[in-house]
Structures are given as structure tokens and as C-alpha cells.
């Protein structure tokens, strides 16, 4: 069916509806953690990267952080190593650490950079070891012998990322860090994204996942979540497994004033729907210093509002 003038007008109206949000976030830094189906499914990944490039072209400063859990697990199994997890964190012995470096820095990061270039953006890949951007200490459970080479972020050096952002590039960051002992450590990608958001004084942290957002005991999406509500969901056992590190990262960022969104990366253009519409599609933990919408913006706060 041929497109009508009304179809074209509606497309223009959508752009105008996004204008208050574009104006609000112009020049602001956004940290996006790419994971779940948005990482593994080619169409979903392409949609996310198209969104990231568009955000860069309208004046925002996105930083892309990625893990690669399924790919690391797949290669580990091919090499005869069965993956193990403790509370959502990968047990990382020396061989698994080498596999993680090969997958994250040698495969996933270059692929994402190439895809961004295909969309007309400019990007550069690096890991937390480069710079070093992330200095880490062993996770307490690593020190207890449970996790191996799993680290916690101790310091962030934002200079390499700021230099790339100032050149108009999109940094693509693999979730590896350098220990004070010179050893590479595997770091949870949600945690890396939160720490980078704090160090870069980002306005938004967006964590892409495989569910609608944070779900309540009845399985319904929670549109807006405060720390008390998050703590209750954890205590009740409603939030568990891989969502635990995400919620911990979100609370860490939210406490420092960074608005955090947990978004279903399976939906086409999930980032644009969450950031540039009044309704939003995920779960938002509002930042302590969130600014109001500019004059003319939507009046009712929701998961998508700043």
C-alpha cells in the first residue's frame, strides 16, 4: 500500500515529540550496557547500535559497555570447561580468563565497532585494561577462593574515554580490568557500566536485558522503582540470579544521582523508546539530581522521563 501524506505527517510528529528529550540530553553523557538478546541476536544488536549512532548524531555522548557471557560460555564448553556461576558472577579460573579476553577484546568489541561504522558512526574499542581505564581489586569471594579472577572496580581513569568522546567517537568498552598486581580480571559488565557512569558524570545509565524490566512478585513490570522497593524485592526473593548484579549496579548509580533504566533489549529501538518518549518501556530508578523536562515537554513523569 502506498504511503499517504498522513503517514508522513505522523512520522514528522514522532520526531517533534522527541524534541524536548533531545534538547534535554544534548551534550550529556549516556552509558549503555549491551547484553542479553540484544547482544546475541543480530537484528536486536543492529537495532541497538543504530539507536546509539542516532543518539550521537543528535548531540548526545553515548558510551557502550559490553559483556559476552553466552559467547564466553560457548567457547569454554568447546574447550572442555563447563561454566560455573555464583550469584550471577562467573567463576573465572586462569583458562577462563584467557577465553574471556579472546572473546571480549578479540571478537565482540571489534564486531561492535565495525557495526557502528556501518551505521555511519565512528567508534573505537578498548577494554578496562587499556589506559588502564579500570583498576580493580579481587572480589571478596575471589579472595575466599570461590570466584577466581573476578574483580571489583577500585578506580576509574576516565581520560581515555573522555578523549574519544571529545573526538566524536563512541567508546566501546569490554568489561575487563587491570589489577594492582598486573593481572587481568573479569568484571561484571553491569558493574563496569555503573562505575563508568559515575566517573563520567553521566546523566543516564541504561542496562539492556532479556525481560521487560524489574518485575514484581506477580510478574508485572515495575515502571519506577526506589531503593526501598528494590530492597524489598531482593529480600522477598523476587529479584534473583542475573538481575541481582543489574539492580545492584542501578542502585549504586542512582545513589550518586545517575538515573538508571533497565530495559528490554529485545524490543526494536528500545533505547529510543525509553529515552525519547514520555511513557518509556522499562524500569527507571530516578536520579537524585534529575532535572525537570524543558518547557513544552511532557507533563507527567514516567519511566521515560528524565
Largest sheet: 7 strands, mixed
CATH class: Alpha Beta
* Mean pLDDT over the full residue set: 88
Shape: globular
So, CATH architecture?
3-Layer(aba) Sandwich
CATH superfamily: Acetylglutamate kinase-like
What's the β-strand tally?
13
Q: Helical proportion?
A: 40-55%
Q: What is the strand content? A: 15-25%
Query: Helix/strand/pairing class, anyone?
Result: alpha/beta
Strand order of the largest sheet: 5-8-2-1-11-12-13
Number of helices: 11
Order of helices and strands: HEHHEHEEHEEHEHEEEHEHHEHE
Distance between the termini: 38 Å
Can you tell me the number of structural domains?
A: 1
Low-confidence stretches: 289-306
State Rg: 19 Å
**CATH domain fold name:** Carbamate kinase
